[in-house]
Amino acid sequence: PPLVLPQDIRDTVISPRNDYALAIAGTNALVVLVDLTVANPTINPVPGVRPQSTLISLSPTGAAAALFEKQTRQLQLVSGLPSAPQVVREFDASILPGEVLGIAVSDDAKLALVNAIQTDDETRTLWLVGREDSASPLSVSRPSHITFIANTSSALIVEQDIQEVVLMQHLHDNPVRLPGIVMRESGHPIAAIAASLDGRSIFVAQEGSGDIWVTDLQSRTTVVVPCHCRPTVFSPLKGTSVFRLNDLSTGPITVLDARPGLPPRTLIIPVNPSKFSKEAQGER
C-alpha cells in the first residue's frame, strides 16, 4: 500500500538502501528527509540546504547527496545521511559554461561530477568539483550518464557518441582513465549504468535492447543476461547487486539479481500476484 505522508512532497529521490528519501515539500520548496524505516514516515527539513533545488543526486550508498539550485547555480554537498545530515561544501557553478544536466557525488561528499551542456551548439563537458573552490574538466567525449562507485573516488562515465562506458579512477588526486566497456555493436544509445556496492561489477543497459551486460572489472569478462524487458534504470534494491530495471507503472516490475556467487538472472514481479495467478490459470 502507498505510504501516508503528513504533507505533499515531489521530486522524490529514494536512498539506495531504501531507508530514507530526499524530496521537495510545500510551497516554499524546502528539501526534506523522509524517514522510511518507521511505519509512519516522518518528514524533516534538511538543515542548511537551499530551497528550490532542481537537481538532487544521492551517492552510491546514500551517505551523501548533491543538490543543485538552478536560479542561483549553487551546488551543495551534504554528508552524514540519513541520521546527521550537514552541508559540508558549497560551490558556485556559475563559473561553469552552459546548463547543468546532471550531477553525481562520492560517498564521502568530497567529490562531485557536474555534466554541463552549451545551449548554442549542445557541446557537453564534464567537470570535477574537488576540495578547492574550483572545478577541472575531465577528458571525456559527450558525457551522458555519470555515477561514482561506492566508497571510492572512482566513477563510471558514459561517452554517448562512441557508446563506451569509461572507468575513471583516483579522481581525488590524479585522475586515471582505464580501458572502457565498448557497446558499439548494436548501435543503441546507452540507457543506464550502475556498479555493484563492492565495486567488482558494472551493469549496462542499452535503449531498445532486452539484455543487460554484466562486466567483472577484475577479469574484464562480460555476461549478457536477457531480461525480456526494455531496461531504463538500475534502481538499487536489497543486496550488493540487485536492481529494479524499469520505471514503476501498472505493469510488472523486472528485477536483476546479480549477487556474487550466483549466476545473474532476472525476475518478474507482477503488480497484483493473486490476479496474475488467476489469469494465468485461466489461460492454461
Give an overview in words.
The chain is mainly β and 284 residues long. It is built from one helix and 24 strands. The strands form six sheets. A four-stranded antiparallel beta sheet has the order 1-2-3-4, with no helix packed on it. It has a four-stranded antiparallel beta sheet with strand order 5-6-7-8, with no helix packed on it. The protein has a four-stranded antiparallel beta sheet with strand order 9-10-11-12, with no helix packed on it. A hairpin with a 4-residue loop joins strand 2 (20-25) and strand 3. The longest helix is centred in the last third of the chain and has 11 residues, at 273-283. The chain is globular and about 45 Å long. The model is unreliable at 276-284 (pLDDT under 50).
Please provide a brief summary of the model.
Helices cover 4% and strands 45% of the residues.
Protein topology:
Blueprint: E1 9-14, E2 20-25, E3 30-35, E4 43-45, E5 55-58, E6 65-69, E7 74-79, E8 86-92, E9 99-105, E10 112-117, E11 124-129, E12 135-138, E13 143-148, E14 155-159, E15 164-169, E16 176-182, E17 190-195, E18 201-206, E19 211-216, E20 222-226, E21 235-236, E22 242-244, E23 253-257, E24 265-269, H1 273-283
Antiparallel strand pairs: 1-2, 2-3, 3-4, 5-6, 6-7, 7-8, 9-10, 10-11, 11-12, 13-14, 14-15, 15-16, 17-18, 18-19, 19-20, 21-22, 22-23, 23-24
